Amino acid sequence: MVTSSWPTACSLPLVGYVWILVVVRLTAFRTSPLDRHANLALIALTVASTMREPTTQRWIVDLCGGHVSGAFLFQFAMILMGGVVGFNVLMVATASGRAYRPVLVHGIAVAGALAALYFGTGARDHGVLIEEETGWAPLGFWLSLLPLIVWLDYLVIRVGVAELRKRSDPREVLVYAAISLFPLVHLIGFSSAPVATIFLIHGEHNVFTAMLTLADRDILLYQTALFAIGMTVPMLFRLVARLGLDSASRSRKRLLPLWSDLTAACPEIVYREPTPDLGSRFLLHRTVIEIRDCLRILSRYIPDAASDTGDTHAVRAYAIQLAHACAAKSAGVPASAEVLALPSTAGDVSAETAELTALAAHWNHARTVVNLPRRAAHPG
Predict the structure, then answer these.
(1) Which long-range contacts link 196-201 to residues 24+ away (Cβ below 8 Å)?
(2) Tens digit of each residue's pLDDT (9 = 90 or more) over 141-164
(3) Which of 85-89, 176-180, 282-286 is predicted least confidently?
């Protein structure tokens, strides 16, 4: 059998899902170089898993009219992944701040793929797995693919260990430990392939040879499943943000009634030009900045501003003063010449957002006291 040993009920839906994943990512995740590298790796893995999955492999053979065999597709899937490892090396290197010459990396990848294609000729002709082929060719096959695999796993392990040393939160430690452990296991497993091949050359069958057969048959689908999970997570985050269910969107919704009244009184501070979709955190940050700018302007209409920090009574008093200032500015009352310092003790954006959220919680009461006209909140 030169297909994966996964049941079709599991492997076929997985391959179908990753093809859908490819379409979605090529549509919505293509902005950054990291996204594009990840998409390329996903496409290669999807094509390779399609060549290994029994049903889709049969479809390809039938579609090609018998000009390609299942053995060729099975073996070429591994060679394809070995060739694409060069893009993964560049992607991980970029993410970790390293710079390698693409020509060098891709040159090694292409050379390894061509060598593996050559050494795998006998197995393809005989319609068997590479480890079932006799002679030294299987050793050459695995050694051809080994250099870039070792390089990639080494880089990922270094990134994972470096991040692990910076983390103290147990959940983050667990995540980065897993990031380091997976390539370590992959490195050990792939590096043992040439060793297992030597045992096979001498006619010995042991745990190494059994692991090699198992890994060669199914490793691409296992990688596809893990990669699909990793690629699905940012899609879910994007969906949650689009639906306004993420933390930044919820925080911004709580600020929008306050933002709407303040910017109605101070329309000059609102940025009206169209902006690209930079995400909910960017919109929250912009909303906080525009509210703060309004507070500075409206401070000229508040003779003795109370504080928007501290106990509930002080925040409520400041909210009422702010509502009076909105009404005064909207009515054309002259402002004082001095812009007062903002009543804030926030040291970062999170603390600032929390302060303004506390102020927004009292805004409905304040605008009722001052009888401000109601306005609809229009997200920017």
Answers:
(1) 196/131, 197/131, 197/138, 197/139, 197/142, 198/139, 200/131, 200/138, 201/134, 201/135, 201/136, 201/138, 201/139
(2) 889 988 888 888 888 888 878 777
(3) 176-180
What is the structure's pLDDT at 14? 93
Predicted confidence at residue 47, as pLDDT, reads 92
CA distance 124 to 202: 21
Q: Which residues contact 126 (CB under 8 A, 6 or more apart)?
A: 71, 132, 133
Give 210-261 as a DSSP string: HHHHHHHHHHHHHHHHHHHHHHHHHHHHHHHHHTT-SHHHHHHHHHHHHHHH
Cα 73 to Cα 50: distance, rounded to the nearest angstrom: 9
Can you give the pTM of this predicted structure? 0.66
Q: Which residue has the tokens 């053995």?
A: 71
Instruction: Give the ranges where the chain is alpha helix by DSSP (H).
Output: 8-28, 33-52, 54-63, 70-95, 102-119, 121-126, 137-166, 170-201, 207-242, 247-265, 280-298, 312-330, 349-361, 363-370
Poorest-pLDDT segment among 2-16, 151-165, 261-275, 338-352: 338-352
